[in-house]
Amino acid sequence: MSEPLKLTGMVLSSMPMGEYDKRLVILTKERGKLAAFARGARRTASPLLAPCNPFSFGSFVLYEGRNSYTLVQADISNYFMELKEDFEGTCYGIYFMEVADYYTRENLEAGAMLNLLYVSLKALSNKSLDNELVRCVYEMKAMILNGEYPFDVIQDPSLQEATRYALAYVANAPLGRLYTFALKPEILKEFKELQQRLNRKNIDRPLKSLEILKTLLG
């Protein structure tokens, strides 16, 4: 048997397999996105019952197989319970995780994307922040991390000056300062419309969670 791997990551999705098992998609700092099976994780007495739920962030001990990994232990530092207890926040969070799933690949280091996802979920948990602003910032920064953001739009003269300033700030801000500002409604509207156009252009498949989010927002 191979040596166990201890990876830092977050559970992006989870689905039942067989009678008691689960299949997880975990975004890890060290190995990117990976599929893992958790044997017996649906049993009520299993120590993996809670860690195998989406939003679980911490360290995971896995064994590497030929086509997938097996999860044997998890030490979760944040379950994002305050987010999961809010229906709207949960919908945004699931969408954020699907975006992370879209942009990441197996065996490609994903520390930057994992960190962005973590701080963005924390921002969603902050009731003083506008969820749509958090969403726009997250989408923009994810696009930047993956080398798909057209930086020339930041200087588009058709945008209001405040919008251009906000875009430049997001492009250059470190993660710790990413969610430290607010925008007037008309500036947020312009930011949002621009980001939606870029999403339609650059994301080449529909995201199921986005349709749910659109229904929620009306």
Task: Tell me what you see in this structure.
It is a single chain. The protein folds into two domains: about 5-80, OB fold (Dihydrolipoamide Acetyltransferase, E2P) (Beta Barrel); about 80-215, Up-down Bundle (de novo design (two linked rop proteins)). The protein is built from seven helices and five strands, in the order βββββααααααα. It has helices spanning about 80-85, 85-105, 110-125, 130-145, 160-170, 185-200, 210-215; strands spanning about 5-15, 20-30, 30-40, 55-65, 70-80. Strands 1-2-3-5-4 form a five-stranded mixed beta barrel. A hairpin with a 4-residue loop joins strand 4 (about 55-65) and strand 5. Helix 2 runs antiparallel to helix 7 (about 210-215), helix 3 runs antiparallel to helix 4 and helix 4 packs parallel to helix 6 (about 185-200). The protein starts with a strand and ends with a helix. The mean pLDDT is about 95.
Shape, per Cα inertia axes: elongated
CATH structural fold name of the largest domain: de novo design (two linked rop proteins)
Fraction of residues in helix: 40-55%
Q: How many strand segments?
A: 5
How many domains make up the 3D coordinates?
2
SS strand fraction: 15-25%
* Count, helices: 7
Order of helices and strands: EEEEEHHHHHHH
Unreliable spans: none
Largest β-sheet summary: 5 strands, mixed, barrel
The chain-level mean pLDDT equals 95
- Give the N-to-C terminal Cα separation: 52 Å
CATH second-level architecture of the largest domain: Up-down Bundle
Q: Given the helix and strand composition, which structural class is it? A: alpha+beta
CATH class of the largest domain: Mainly Alpha
Major sheet: order of its strands?
1-2-3-5-4
Rg to the nearest angstrom? 18 Å
